[in-house]
């Protein structure tokens, strides 16, 4: 039995399209990540304000520290929301900081960001 190249190519295209359609949200979030916006500011009193938005309602935790070797974590948010934030008191200006976000969607899937500063 000889396979027709056009039939195989068409079947592969249809299967690929079907899989992409079925897993669109997962594929999209894999490439763009769960975070829509992130902002980190220091005021003159040693308070760091960290705000972020997720692309979907989520409970989040913030991983933070001065290096990726030793990280601290905020408590998980109590509610599913797209706007998140926390304040840190006693931060020294000019100190290197690293952040990452761990997001939990309403279906229980876990997403995390790549490290960023």
UniProtKB/TrEMBL annotation:
- Origin superkingdom: Bacteria
Q: What is this protein called?
A: Fibronectin type III domain protein
| Protein species of origin | candidate division WWE3 bacterium GW2011_GWA2_46_9
Q: What is the lineage of its organism?
A: Bacteria, Katanobacteria
